[in-house]
Amino acid sequence: MKVLEETLNARIPSGPLDQKWTRHQGELKLVSPNNKRKYTVIVVGTGLAGGSAAATLAELGYNVRSFCYQDSARRAHSIAAQGGINACKNYQNDGDSVRRFFYDTIKGGDFRSREANVYRLTELSTNIIDQCVAQGVPFAREYGGTLANRSFGGAQVSRTFYARGQTGQQLLLGCYQAMMRQVNAGKITLHPRTEMLDLVVANGRAIGIITRNLVTGQIEKHCADAVVLATGGYGNVFYLSTNAKGCNVTATFRAYRQGAYFANPCYTQIHPTCIPPHGEHQSKLTLMSESLRNDGRVWVPKKPGDRRPPDQIPDEERDYYLERLYPSYGNLAPRDIASRAAKRVVDEGRGVGPTGVGVYLDFRDAIRRLGEQNIAARYGNLFDMYQRITDENPYKVPMRIYPASHYTMGGLWVDYNLMSNIPGLFVIGEANFSDHGANRLGASALLQGLVDGYFVLPYTIGDYFARFKKLDATTDHPEFDQAEARVKDRIRTLLSINGRRTPDSFHRQLGQLVWDKCGMSRNADGLREAIAKIPEIRQEFWENVKVVGTGEDLNISLEQAGRVADFIELAELMCRDALAREESCGGHFREEHQTEDGEALRDDERFCHVSCWKSNGPDADPDLIIEPLAFENVQLVTRSYK
Amino acid sequence: MLPSSIAKKAVVAVTGLLLFGFVVVHMIGNLQVFLGRETLNNYAEFLHSMPELLWAARIGLLTAIVLHVVFTVWVWRENRASRPQRYAVERTIRASRASRTMILSGLLVLSFIIYHLLHFTVQVTNPDYRQFYEHQGRPVTLVSYEPPPQPSSSRPEAVNGAEDAPETIASEASPRIETIPAESVPVEARRDVYRMVVLGFRSPLIALTYIIAQLLLGLHLSHGASAMFQTLGLTTPKYRKAQFLFGPAAAALIVLGNVSIPLVILLDHWAGLGLFDV
Amino acid sequence: MNLTLHVWRQQGPSAPGRLVTYQAKDVSPDQSFLEMLDGLNEELISRGEEPVAFDHDCREGICGSCGVVINGVAHGPEQTTTCQLHMRSFKDGDEIVIEPWRADPFPVIRDLMVDRSAFDRIIAAGGYVSINTGSAPEANGIPVRKEDADMAFDSATCIGCGACVAACKNASAMLFTSAKVAQLARLPQGQVERKRRVLNMVEQMDKEGFGNCSNYQECEAVCPKQISTQNIAVMNREYLRASLSGA
What we know:
The complex is a heterotrimer of chains A (642), B (278) and C (247). Chain B is mostly helical and 278 residues long. Chain B has eight helices and four strands.
């Protein structure tokens, strides 16, 4: 590994923290309304970030081409977010403020995020609620007609807005509807069932993408004045995750191969409340909203190997370990902390359920206190979902939960303007690395996607257009032909291998390895082992994968194979990053670096930075570039939720 | 511009509502057969006493039927076109049999209506009904009917205004029915709807036809009389359940009421109870 | 358990299709229906045959991608999405016929995959509040009755899977369209465009070639989100009022 001396300019505006964004907005260059219609922007992905960006850019007058692999712009996985969206409106009068939300987020991210980005995120959170309400998003309300809030992990105030357990769905449909309005107005062209397979960079600037039409198999070239990637995270590298089956890293990983820096790939979030896996056929894991921890109590038996049914274990023989270990936050401890605590008790042999991999989330006391009806009103749909999947009634029997891969804080590096190191390539939402540091707080993913798409990118993209000379938006550049050739070559190769193993079998193998070695906790030996093993998987993949059908047609196994191929390469990068970061922080827990009672031990001297990886191609080690993190407004303290 | 799907269905619902109203009124009117000859014939006479209104109602109802049928068939054809390829396995979870057979029950009821009009109104199926008259509470029968030579003759329609018709008194020999020559219909005589109905339903075939038709009508209304609220957007969350019960309940009452007429008449006839005085 | 599957295979929209029989062996009752199909596909790929194409994504019942007709019922025997249907709803030796959504406006793309873009066009015709980013008033500025917010939410939970169309004997899209109309008609934010919205959306719905509503209630019976046909009554009322009063 080579550490490059290159300095990355994050373009963080000067001035006091609370004036940075306002001042920056005033300094950003503008594109006049007449000229906006001469610019075309490609937006890949139609989740909260991509959808909100596409809609807003179109409203501003830009021509937008929107791409998604799903059949409609309404289906991206933002839709599955259950619990809510944070905003420091302080409607509850419980002492919330931008400053407090900012601090919670910085602390939640274990002091590994940029102050300025986080401040902007929290500052704009209030506008997001206004915007969504105006779109007709039916947030929960009080009888007086005002908006209701609930509390969420990692915060001591109630700042989470929600629409029952389907907040992500309601927000995404808001975006989708705003997009469809622009489709109707002719400002957005939709390309559903289309997958981005490569980025086209010419003269150092992103000028377009290569896509494959998933129905016809057609490889298409699309040029634009800017490319926005809003393609989500790479949690599916673990094979089993709470991500949608189709979620993949191809768009951002191909951009990485074309020169974009990949930042902090080892920061992955393992969500503490998922339904435990049941068997080898399992295709994905289902999340149970973190909001359940508001009323549910997490426990395991005190005695290892206690196989009694939960109702026969008396209270004094139960270990409510989160309440015991973290009395001030209790069951609402942040995700990484709650996840690791669950792993610890399971590793001690105190796990529950048929596989012994799981802990109880018990609503007995809440039902006694509030009545079954009130619990049903709060969590009814989640309880139904749980019962459907497990065939157990959570009103009677405690839920069983276990952590699962859920979100990835790492992503393509971007500056304050959300532009990557390749001019013209913007990355928003989960796909970038920007706002959550080493761990994301619950109900802040929706927020980041929407803030990026509605209120940041639409300003900063204009600045890019105004500063850089307009290029001829045409696919005549030789780089388009080269990119197309790369894509076609790869497809041809995949189709010609004709081996014996299905793409999924490689994915499962990879996922298990990464989960074991680079999952909830990591150590140097395991990571080295994985770094040695992954290239072997990669080699076998390229020799023995079985892809049926042709490239000129709808071909599911070809789609899968392409995505798995990129996951394999990404997994290696993740492990390298995890190995290089010799500290524990947030979602990245290195067993060598922990306190006596098993908490994460940061090393602010050596690792208070963003690790950015620069590709040297699949067969050479990547280089590392460091972006130091400067904390001027908060003190780096040990993150404690005790 | 063609009407939208919702507008078409609204036409079906509004005409359906009209026809439903007519069915109810018609039933109440006809149930008077159980109150005896005088009541029913009074009612018939009353209806015929306002020919303009009667004809307006008839034209209105006819239009409603035509619109109801034309729009339904139109909608039905569109619905068929919306699923050109059927499922290999077809299953129904909630849709009632009534709702799935609306077009069939509707068309059968339509053919019944045509028969019913031919039977009782135009009387082409049973021309002898034209000879049934009532005089001073007694039934009389015209033995032969010939077109009268003058306009002021004793045509049935002209009964009320036929001043110069000969004064003939019907026989006192009732309950046996007096037969009198057509020319000698008394001025105060009126059509004997009562006898027509009772004699009509003493025929088992006719009674059975009516009973079956009423069951079909009931099936049709059990869905239609609820669905019209939904189609016209009149269902409300609070009364929704009641509105969905309305159709079956109303249909049951209508079937009960309408079937009772032929059924009771036929059973009475078979049992020889003599409840009906013809 | 072992099952016999009869799966609709069709190369493309205009190609003829047919039911093809496969055996699914060693299916676990804890598997989801789609995981069972995954297993079939793994086997087909291993044998060098083309896997069965079906739409799916989130696999937790919210994205609305998945949906097949199982033994004549959209999404199968449980009232949920296909991805949330578990094999414990079947028993050893069962024969399962799997067909795509069938409706003229939903042409088959391949096998069990259909094109539902007609739904997108219905939303594009008016299923939104026309407000540009940045011009929103303070969120608590307009109070919304809790009852209205709750009812709007109930309508808004539609996932756009298309089961309503698939289940309707008339392939009608009334439930889908009405859910959006009713949601926005219920909220103060949706009032300004209320009349125009319903007229435009219904016009588009008709243009796509969906059938009419015969009040069968089959749509409600299969809707994974239990969207009520009361929404249809609301849309009918909204539509008739808008067309009678002029938009």
